Amino acid sequence: MELKKSSGYFYGWSIVGAAFLSRFSFASGNASILGLFFTPLNAQLGWSRTSIAGVLTLSRLFEGITSPIVGTLLDRYGSRWILVVGGIILSLGFMGLSAMTTLWHFYLVRGIFMAIGFSLVSMLVTNTTISNWFVVRRGRAIALAGMGTSTGMLIISPITVAIIAVWGWQMAWIFFAVLAWVVVIIPSALIMKRRPEDIGLKPDGEVVSNYDYSNLQTEKRVQYNSANEAVWTRRQVVRTPAFWLLITAISSSMLAFQGVNISIAPYAEDLGFGAAAIALMLMARSVATILVTPVWGMLSEHVHLPIVRVVPFSIQLLAAALLTLADTNAMLWFGIVVYGAGFTGMMIIQEVLWANYYGRLTLGTVRSTSLPLQVLMSGGGPVLINLVFDITGSYRPAYAAFIGLYLMSAILIWFAKPPIPYDFAKPDER
Fold first, then answer.
1. CA geometry: angle at 423 spanning 417 and 428, to 5°?
2. pTM for the full model?
3. Is pLDDT at 228 greater than 80 in this prediction?
4. Does pLDDT of 218 surpass 70?
5. 337 and 318 Cβ atoms separated by less than 8 Å
6. How does the average pLDDT of the chain come out, rounded?
7. What residues contact residue 310 under an 8 Å CB cut-off, 6+ apart?
8. Dihedral, CA of residue 256, residue 295, residue 20 and residue 260, to nearest 10
């Protein structure tokens, strides 16, 4: 098929829009949202914070187990039907949660069954697809799609609080079930496509002439061409130092972030804030995240500079310190807002790093190789921080420990340099 030049609107932005909607729905599974269910579930069913948070660890474990399979399917078939099936699983799962009465039911549905759904609609799927459609504008495209999660948190948090207060926690799950159809299943089925080459286009619509792609994959100066993209196997990926530096830095940060994420609502509640005030805090974090996301998108297109890679981890370190020392309302609010802004930057930059370092053609395989540890660590955060709470009666000791994790992550990400590809794909092998 003869490749077409882009004139006017580039279909890749429709891909970004569909990914945005998918990320919007993904917010319903956010640890902060689950934290809003702590009090009503404890009051009605008698479940402790640790037992509720433990479902996320189980969920992350199963997400990690399934992610290599998802990555392989993604490289082979694209994201459309992966997202559709994932959305259907999530919708059915939320309906199941609305009828649960026992803890084992909660763990079976949310921890195992829905884990498969979240794996199928995860950032692995949406960001890999976007990275296939964009190279030069990859950072800003991923950033725009990522705003879906922040927007979802902004809208879903107060709605969840209101639904729980008026109709109970069961109806909140039903709302999430309907939402999955509206923003994941239908848009993905209608819009998502695997790669621009499948419809006769190039990444970004057309390759930008004379653009320096030297920082995208290797330290060698090469002119971009899909025929010159590296093809990686899992064995080759794990033999590169960049893989271990990236995965250790990001996984450690994910453990800390998810620990803070699930504890924000109960932490604020313990400090005397009511449900409405907590919802406003989460909304403020979401607004701040939305505002800084475009900035992160543009910065991420310069990840070859170590200082750019370090910035989001440093911001999260500052936020963890603020939360540890919070003794005023202003400090708590500021810590929560800064935390969200730093995490958004980390997620955008890591996605651009993986794509730039390892290329488009086998990105699903590469990312799914990194995800098991990353997902497992993020799942451990909620349990660990609530164990600390059960032992000490406070979240502050865990917050203080997270400062050290972010410092370590910043150092590791500083030294993560692009790997040298083992091989290149031939045009007839794409």
1. 135
2. 0.77
3. no
4. no
5. no
6. 84
7. 410, 413, 414
8. 20
Q: What is the largest CA-CA distance in the chain?
A: 66
Is the pLDDT assigned to residue 421 strictly greater than 60?
Answer: yes
Residue 136 has pLDDT above 90, yes or no: no
For 424, phi and psi rounded to 5 degrees?
-125, 145
Nearest to 193 by CA among 133, 118, 119: 133
Beta-bridge mates of residue 202 = 205
Of 388, 350, 370, 339, which Cα lies nearest the Cα of 31?
339
The answer to whether the beta carbons of residues 344 and 297 sit under 8 Å apart is: no
Q: Which domains does the chain have, with CATH numbers?
A: 12-197+228-429 (1.20.1250.20)
Encoded tokens for 267: 């932490």
Distance CA 304, CA 417 (A): 8
Record the tokens describing residue 141, joined without a space: 């495209």
Mapping DSSP onto H, E and C, the string for the chain reads CCCCCCCCCCCHHHHHHHHHHHHHHHHHHCHHHHHCCHHHHHHHHCCCHHHHHHHHHHHHHHHHHHHHHHHHHHHHHCCHHHHHHHHHHHHHHHHHHHCCCCHHHHHHHHHHHHHHHHHHCCHHHHHHHHHHHCCCCHHHHHHHHHHHHHHHHHHHHHHHHHHHHHHCHHHHHHHHHHHHHHHHHHHHHHHCCCCHHHHCCECCECCCCCCCCCCCCCCCCCCCCHHHCECCCHHHHCCCHHHHHHHHHHHHHHHHHHHHHHHHHHHHHHCCCCHHHHHHHHHHHHHHHHHHHHHHHHHHCCCCCHHHHHHHHHHHHHHHHHHHHCCCHHHHHHHHHHHHHHHHHHHHHHHHHHHHHHCCCCHHHHHHHHHHHHHHHHHHHHHHHHHHHHHHCCCHHHHHHHHHHHHHHHHHHHCCCCCCCCCECCHHHC
